């Protein structure tokens, strides 16, 4: 697996962190983390499968989230995801609830990703909101 990592701003409003991971089959996942008004926005774009989950995992466990009351997760640019996404989100949901914070799925999901939630019966486990 090849990967690249870049660090952006170190605080304040805007993007504070971003990472990319490439899987051996040519897919790529790009994840960014931005802060604004006490809320974190994590954005994932590309495809996510078990070999390239680490950028999203790192974003959802980033130290700056401890200072926020909400994390909005924008998966609208995710073109593919497997069960590793569900595992990661359910784990992150537990962590957020333990610190009395909300994990919110923001924006419309691509049909293939929406189907993952529907088929597994996990859609109701998450708060959803439009972007």
Rough outline: globular
Assigned CATH superfamily? STAS domain
Enumerate how many helices there are, as a single number: 3
Largest sheet: 7 strands, mixed
* N-C termini distance: 32 Å
Oligomer: single chain
Number of strands: 7
**CATH first level:** Alpha Beta
Q: Looking across the biggest beta sheet, what order are the strands in?
A: 1-2-3-4-5-6-7
Radius of gyration: 14 Å
Structural class label: alpha/beta
Q: Could you list the spans in which at least 5 consecutive residues all have pLDDT below 50?
A: 1-12
Number of domains: 1
Write the H/E string, N to C.
EEEEHEHEHE
* Mean pLDDT across every amino acid position: 88
CATH architecture: 2-Layer Sandwich
Determine the strand fraction and express it as a percent band. 35-45%
Query: Within the CATH hierarchy, at the fold level, what is the topology?
Result: Transcription Regulator spoIIAA
Share of helix among residues?
Answer: 25-40%
């Amino acid at each position: 697996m090849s990967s690249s990592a870049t660090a952006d701003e170190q605080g304040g409003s805007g993007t504070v962190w971003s990472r990319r991971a490439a899987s051996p089959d040519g897919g790529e996942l790009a994840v960014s983390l931005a802060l604004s008004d006490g809320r974190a926005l994590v954005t994932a774009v590309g495809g996510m499968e078990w070999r390239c989950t680490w950028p999203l995992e790192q974003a959802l466990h980033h130290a700056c989230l401890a200072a926020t009351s909400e994390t909005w997760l924008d998966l609208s640019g995710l073109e593919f995801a497997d069960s590793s996404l569900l595992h990661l989100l359910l784990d992150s949901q537990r962590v957020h609830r333990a610190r009395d914070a909300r994990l919110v799925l923001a924006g419309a999901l691509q049909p293939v990703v929406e189907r993952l939630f529907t088929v597994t019966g996990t859609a109701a486990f998450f708060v959803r909101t439009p972007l």
